Amino acid sequence: MAGVLVSGAGGFIGLPTIVRLAGQGSEVHALSTRAYPPQLPGVRWHRLDLFDTRSVDELVGELAPEQLIHLAWCTETGRCLHAPENVTWVERSLHLLRAFVRCGGRRAVMLGTCAEYDWSAVDGPFCELTSAPAPATLYGVAKDALRRVASAYLAQEEVELAWARPFFLYGPREAPARLVPSLVRALLAGHTVATGSDERVRDFMYVQDVADALVALRGSSVVGAVNIASGLSTTIGEIVDRIVELTGGGELVRRGALPDRPGEPRQLLADVGRLHDEVGYRSRWNLVDGLAATVSWWREHESAGANTSPTRRGRSGTPQRM
User: Fold this and answer.
1) Is 273 within a domain?
2) Which domain CATH number covers 259?
3) Contact 173/297 with Cβ under 8 angstroms?
4) Which residues contact 262 (CB under 8 A, 6 or more apart)?
5) Model confidence over 133-160: pLDDT tens digits?
6) b/e for 234-258, b at 16 or more Cβ within 10 A?
7) pTM of the predicted model, to two decimals?
8) How far apart are CA 183 and CA 195, in angstroms?
9) Sheet hosting strand 253-254, strand order edge to edge
10) Spatial distance between the Cα atoms of 175 and 131, rounded to a whole number of angstroms
Protein backbone atom coordinates (compact mmCIF):
# COMPACT_ATOMS: atom_id res chain seq x y z
CA MET A 1 0.00 0.00 0.00
CA ALA A 2 1.16 3.58 -0.58
CA GLY A 3 -0.32 7.06 -0.44
CA VAL A 4 0.20 9.92 1.99
CA LEU A 5 -0.11 9.69 5.76
CA VAL A 6 -1.22 12.88 7.54
CA SER A 7 -0.93 13.34 11.30
CA GLY A 8 -3.01 16.01 13.02
CA ALA A 9 -5.47 15.59 10.16
CA GLY A 10 -8.48 16.87 12.06
CA GLY A 11 -6.80 20.10 13.15
CA PHE A 12 -6.95 23.71 12.02
CA ILE A 13 -4.40 23.14 9.24
CA GLY A 14 -4.87 19.40 8.87
CA LEU A 15 -8.50 19.32 7.77
CA PRO A 16 -8.18 21.64 4.74
CA THR A 17 -4.93 19.86 3.88
CA ILE A 18 -6.49 16.41 3.61
CA VAL A 19 -9.48 17.81 1.71
CA ARG A 20 -7.10 19.32 -0.86
CA LEU A 21 -5.04 16.12 -1.09
CA ALA A 22 -8.14 13.99 -1.64
CA GLY A 23 -9.41 16.46 -4.22
CA GLN A 24 -6.20 15.91 -6.19
CA GLY A 25 -6.80 12.17 -6.21
CA SER A 26 -4.23 11.22 -3.57
CA GLU A 27 -4.74 8.17 -1.40
CA VAL A 28 -5.08 9.90 1.97
CA HIS A 29 -4.64 8.17 5.33
CA ALA A 30 -5.64 10.62 8.04
CA LEU A 31 -4.63 10.19 11.68
CA SER A 32 -6.84 11.49 14.48
CA THR A 33 -7.60 10.76 18.13
CA ARG A 34 -11.26 11.67 17.64
CA ALA A 35 -13.80 8.88 17.85
CA TYR A 36 -15.95 10.34 15.06
CA PRO A 37 -13.91 12.44 12.62
CA PRO A 38 -15.75 14.05 9.70
CA GLN A 39 -16.33 11.67 6.83
CA LEU A 40 -14.75 13.05 3.68
CA PRO A 41 -14.65 11.61 0.15
CA GLY A 42 -11.29 10.03 -0.61
CA VAL A 43 -10.06 10.14 3.01
CA ARG A 44 -9.54 7.05 5.13
CA TRP A 45 -9.42 7.86 8.84
CA HIS A 46 -7.35 5.97 11.39
CA ARG A 47 -7.87 6.57 15.10
CA LEU A 48 -4.37 6.68 16.55
CA ASP A 49 -2.61 8.23 19.53
CA LEU A 50 0.97 9.02 18.53
CA PHE A 51 2.00 8.47 22.15
CA ASP A 52 1.05 4.79 21.72
CA THR A 53 4.28 3.77 20.00
CA ARG A 54 3.32 0.13 19.46
CA SER A 55 0.14 1.13 17.64
CA VAL A 56 2.13 3.63 15.58
CA ASP A 57 4.52 0.90 14.46
CA GLU A 58 1.68 -1.47 13.60
CA LEU A 59 -0.39 1.04 11.62
CA VAL A 60 2.51 2.57 9.69
CA GLY A 61 3.76 -0.94 8.93
CA GLU A 62 0.33 -1.90 7.62
CA LEU A 63 -0.12 1.23 5.49
CA ALA A 64 3.49 1.61 4.27
CA PRO A 65 2.86 5.19 3.07
CA GLU A 66 5.18 6.68 0.48
CA GLN A 67 4.76 10.21 1.83
CA LEU A 68 4.20 11.75 5.26
CA ILE A 69 2.80 15.14 6.28
CA HIS A 70 3.37 15.51 10.02
CA LEU A 71 1.27 18.29 11.56
CA ALA A 72 0.41 16.94 15.03
CA TRP A 73 1.83 18.81 18.04
CA CYS A 74 0.68 20.40 21.29
CA THR A 75 -1.00 23.66 20.28
CA GLU A 76 -2.93 24.96 23.29
CA THR A 77 -3.10 28.74 22.95
CA GLY A 78 -1.01 30.61 25.51
CA ARG A 79 0.54 27.44 26.87
CA CYS A 80 2.26 25.67 24.00
CA LEU A 81 5.21 28.09 23.89
CA HIS A 82 6.52 26.81 27.23
CA ALA A 83 4.71 23.47 27.74
CA PRO A 84 6.95 20.56 28.86
CA GLU A 85 5.06 18.37 26.36
CA ASN A 86 7.11 19.96 23.59
CA VAL A 87 9.97 17.67 24.59
CA THR A 88 7.76 14.59 24.37
CA TRP A 89 6.49 15.68 20.98
CA VAL A 90 10.04 15.69 19.66
CA GLU A 91 10.36 12.08 20.81
CA ARG A 92 7.00 10.99 19.37
CA SER A 93 7.68 12.76 16.07
CA LEU A 94 11.00 10.98 15.68
CA HIS A 95 9.37 7.66 16.48
CA LEU A 96 6.76 8.25 13.76
CA LEU A 97 9.51 9.27 11.35
CA ARG A 98 11.55 6.15 12.03
CA ALA A 99 8.50 3.94 11.47
CA PHE A 100 7.85 5.78 8.21
CA VAL A 101 11.43 5.20 7.01
CA ARG A 102 11.44 1.52 8.01
CA CYS A 103 8.36 0.94 5.89
CA GLY A 104 9.83 2.49 2.75
CA GLY A 105 8.71 6.12 3.04
CA ARG A 106 10.32 8.41 0.47
CA ARG A 107 9.30 12.02 1.26
CA ALA A 108 8.27 13.78 4.47
CA VAL A 109 6.83 17.25 5.02
CA MET A 110 7.06 18.34 8.65
CA LEU A 111 5.62 21.42 10.29
CA GLY A 112 8.02 23.83 11.97
CA THR A 113 7.33 27.39 13.10
CA CYS A 114 8.47 30.94 12.55
CA ALA A 115 9.35 30.88 16.28
CA GLU A 116 12.52 29.03 15.27
CA TYR A 117 13.95 32.34 14.06
CA ASP A 118 15.72 34.93 16.21
CA TRP A 119 12.91 37.41 16.77
CA SER A 120 15.35 39.98 18.12
CA ALA A 121 16.86 40.26 14.61
CA VAL A 122 14.03 42.06 12.85
CA ASP A 123 15.81 44.35 10.40
CA GLY A 124 14.16 42.59 7.45
CA PRO A 125 12.11 39.56 6.39
CA PHE A 126 13.32 36.21 7.71
CA CYS A 127 14.95 34.07 5.01
CA GLU A 128 15.37 30.31 5.34
CA LEU A 129 18.84 30.42 3.77
CA THR A 130 20.33 33.40 5.62
CA SER A 131 18.41 33.87 8.90
CA ALA A 132 19.94 31.58 11.49
CA PRO A 133 17.54 29.87 13.91
CA ALA A 134 17.78 31.15 17.49
CA PRO A 135 14.47 30.33 19.19
CA ALA A 136 13.60 31.95 22.51
CA THR A 137 10.85 29.56 23.66
CA LEU A 138 10.73 25.85 24.42
CA TYR A 139 8.27 25.44 21.54
CA GLY A 140 10.69 27.02 19.08
CA VAL A 141 13.66 25.13 20.49
CA ALA A 142 11.80 21.81 20.28
CA LYS A 143 10.79 22.40 16.67
CA ASP A 144 14.31 23.44 15.72
CA ALA A 145 15.79 20.41 17.48
CA LEU A 146 13.39 18.12 15.63
CA ARG A 147 14.36 19.73 12.33
CA ARG A 148 18.05 19.23 12.98
CA VAL A 149 17.76 15.58 13.99
CA ALA A 150 15.21 14.73 11.29
CA SER A 151 17.32 16.42 8.61
CA ALA A 152 20.45 14.47 9.51
CA TYR A 153 18.58 11.18 9.92
CA LEU A 154 16.62 11.41 6.66
CA ALA A 155 19.66 12.52 4.69
CA GLN A 156 21.47 9.42 5.96
CA GLU A 157 18.50 7.26 4.92
CA GLU A 158 18.19 9.02 1.54
CA VAL A 159 14.66 10.21 2.29
CA GLU A 160 13.55 13.73 1.33
CA LEU A 161 12.56 16.20 4.04
CA ALA A 162 10.75 19.49 3.46
CA TRP A 163 10.44 21.61 6.60
CA ALA A 164 7.49 24.03 6.47
CA ARG A 165 7.71 27.18 8.62
CA PRO A 166 4.29 28.87 8.83
CA PHE A 167 4.06 32.43 10.10
CA PHE A 168 0.72 33.90 11.26
CA LEU A 169 -2.42 31.99 10.34
CA TYR A 170 -6.11 32.78 10.56
CA GLY A 171 -9.35 31.33 9.25
CA PRO A 172 -12.35 29.18 10.14
CA ARG A 173 -11.96 26.69 13.01
CA GLU A 174 -9.02 28.52 14.58
CA ALA A 175 -8.66 28.16 18.38
CA PRO A 176 -11.09 30.71 19.89
CA ALA A 177 -8.49 32.33 22.14
CA ARG A 178 -6.24 33.39 19.27
CA LEU A 179 -6.12 36.93 17.90
CA VAL A 180 -8.62 36.92 15.02
CA PRO A 181 -11.33 34.65 16.49
CA SER A 182 -11.15 36.27 19.92
CA LEU A 183 -11.90 39.67 18.36
CA VAL A 184 -14.55 38.34 15.97
CA ARG A 185 -16.39 36.39 18.67
CA ALA A 186 -16.32 39.26 21.15
CA LEU A 187 -17.76 41.77 18.68
CA LEU A 188 -20.40 39.37 17.39
CA ALA A 189 -21.50 38.79 20.98
CA GLY A 190 -21.46 42.50 21.87
CA HIS A 191 -18.59 42.14 24.32
CA THR A 192 -15.92 44.72 25.04
CA VAL A 193 -12.50 43.69 23.75
CA ALA A 194 -9.10 45.13 24.63
CA THR A 195 -6.25 45.14 22.11
CA GLY A 196 -2.55 45.92 22.15
CA SER A 197 -0.55 48.16 19.85
CA ASP A 198 -2.03 48.75 16.37
CA GLU A 199 1.45 49.33 14.89
CA ARG A 200 2.73 45.76 15.21
CA VAL A 201 3.39 44.28 11.76
CA ARG A 202 2.82 40.62 10.96
CA ASP A 203 2.72 38.29 7.95
CA PHE A 204 -0.79 36.79 7.87
CA MET A 205 -1.89 33.90 5.68
CA TYR A 206 -5.37 32.41 5.31
CA VAL A 207 -5.52 28.80 6.47
CA GLN A 208 -6.65 27.45 3.08
CA ASP A 209 -3.56 29.03 1.52
CA VAL A 210 -1.42 27.39 4.21
CA ALA A 211 -2.97 23.99 3.45
CA ASP A 212 -2.55 24.46 -0.31
CA ALA A 213 1.07 25.51 0.17
CA LEU A 214 1.75 22.35 2.19
CA VAL A 215 0.16 20.21 -0.52
CA ALA A 216 2.25 21.98 -3.17
CA LEU A 217 5.38 21.46 -1.06
CA ARG A 218 4.55 17.77 -0.69
CA GLY A 219 4.23 17.45 -4.47
CA SER A 220 7.50 19.23 -5.20
CA SER A 221 11.11 18.08 -4.95
CA VAL A 222 12.11 20.97 -2.67
CA VAL A 223 13.98 20.00 0.49
CA GLY A 224 14.97 21.95 3.59
CA ALA A 225 13.18 24.82 5.29
CA VAL A 226 10.48 26.74 3.42
CA ASN A 227 8.59 29.72 4.84
CA ILE A 228 4.82 29.32 4.54
CA ALA A 229 3.55 32.90 4.46
CA SER A 230 2.05 35.59 2.26
CA GLY A 231 5.15 37.79 2.15
CA LEU A 232 2.89 40.79 2.84
CA SER A 233 3.04 43.12 5.83
CA THR A 234 -0.19 43.76 7.73
CA THR A 235 -0.55 45.78 10.91
CA ILE A 236 -2.67 44.58 13.79
CA GLY A 237 -4.59 47.83 13.36
CA GLU A 238 -5.56 46.81 9.81
CA ILE A 239 -6.84 43.48 11.10
CA VAL A 240 -8.92 45.22 13.77
CA ASP A 241 -10.28 47.77 11.28
CA ARG A 242 -11.39 45.10 8.82
CA ILE A 243 -13.07 42.95 11.48
CA VAL A 244 -14.88 46.00 12.86
CA GLU A 245 -16.17 46.75 9.35
CA LEU A 246 -17.44 43.18 9.02
CA THR A 247 -19.00 42.86 12.47
CA GLY A 248 -19.79 46.38 13.66
CA GLY A 249 -19.24 47.32 17.26
CA GLY A 250 -16.17 49.49 16.82
CA GLU A 251 -17.06 51.31 20.03
CA LEU A 252 -16.47 48.04 21.91
CA VAL A 253 -12.78 47.91 20.95
CA ARG A 254 -10.40 49.39 23.53
CA ARG A 255 -7.38 49.96 21.31
CA GLY A 256 -3.98 49.98 22.98
CA ALA A 257 -5.46 49.02 26.35
CA LEU A 258 -3.19 46.00 26.64
CA PRO A 259 0.61 46.16 26.89
CA ASP A 260 2.54 44.26 24.26
CA ARG A 261 4.08 41.03 25.51
CA PRO A 262 7.71 41.32 26.66
CA GLY A 263 10.17 40.53 23.89
CA GLU A 264 7.52 40.73 21.19
CA PRO A 265 9.03 42.45 18.13
CA ARG A 266 7.34 45.23 16.22
CA GLN A 267 7.71 43.40 12.92
CA LEU A 268 7.69 39.73 11.88
CA LEU A 269 7.78 39.12 8.13
CA ALA A 270 8.76 36.23 5.88
CA ASP A 271 10.89 36.07 2.76
CA VAL A 272 8.78 33.86 0.47
CA GLY A 273 11.24 33.47 -2.37
CA ARG A 274 11.57 29.70 -1.97
CA LEU A 275 7.80 29.22 -1.73
CA HIS A 276 7.18 31.29 -4.86
CA ASP A 277 10.15 30.36 -7.04
CA GLU A 278 10.98 26.78 -6.05
CA VAL A 279 7.70 25.34 -4.79
CA GLY A 280 5.70 27.43 -7.26
CA TYR A 281 2.98 28.50 -4.83
CA ARG A 282 1.55 31.99 -4.27
CA SER A 283 -1.28 32.99 -1.96
CA ARG A 284 -4.72 32.98 -3.57
CA TRP A 285 -6.62 34.61 -0.71
CA ASN A 286 -6.25 38.30 0.06
CA LEU A 287 -6.84 39.69 3.54
CA VAL A 288 -10.23 41.19 2.70
CA ASP A 289 -11.70 37.95 1.37
CA GLY A 290 -10.02 35.79 4.01
CA LEU A 291 -11.35 37.81 6.92
CA ALA A 292 -14.81 37.98 5.34
CA ALA A 293 -14.88 34.18 5.06
CA THR A 294 -13.63 33.85 8.62
CA VAL A 295 -16.22 36.21 10.08
CA SER A 296 -18.96 34.46 8.09
CA TRP A 297 -17.91 31.08 9.51
CA TRP A 298 -17.83 32.35 13.10
CA ARG A 299 -21.18 34.10 12.69
CA GLU A 300 -22.77 30.85 11.56
CA HIS A 301 -20.90 28.80 14.17
CA GLU A 302 -21.75 31.09 17.09
CA SER A 303 -25.38 31.31 16.02
CA ALA A 304 -25.65 27.53 16.00
CA GLY A 305 -23.94 27.37 19.39
CA ALA A 306 -26.34 29.91 20.86
CA ASN A 307 -29.29 27.84 19.71
CA THR A 308 -27.99 24.71 21.39
CA SER A 309 -26.26 26.18 24.44
CA PRO A 310 -27.52 29.63 25.39
CA THR A 311 -25.18 30.03 28.37
CA ARG A 312 -21.91 29.21 26.61
CA ARG A 313 -20.86 32.80 25.82
CA GLY A 314 -20.21 34.12 29.31
CA ARG A 315 -21.20 37.52 30.66
CA SER A 316 -21.82 40.37 28.27
CA GLY A 317 -19.49 43.31 28.68
CA THR A 318 -16.59 41.28 30.10
CA PRO A 319 -13.34 42.60 28.55
CA GLN A 320 -11.61 40.08 26.31
CA ARG A 321 -7.82 39.99 25.93
CA MET A 322 -6.33 40.11 22.45
Assistant:
1) no
2) 3.90.25.10
3) yes
4) none
5) 999 999 999 999 999 999 999 999 999 9
6) bbbbbbbebbbebbebeebbeeeee
7) 0.92
8) 9
9) 253-254, 193-194, 320-321
10) 29
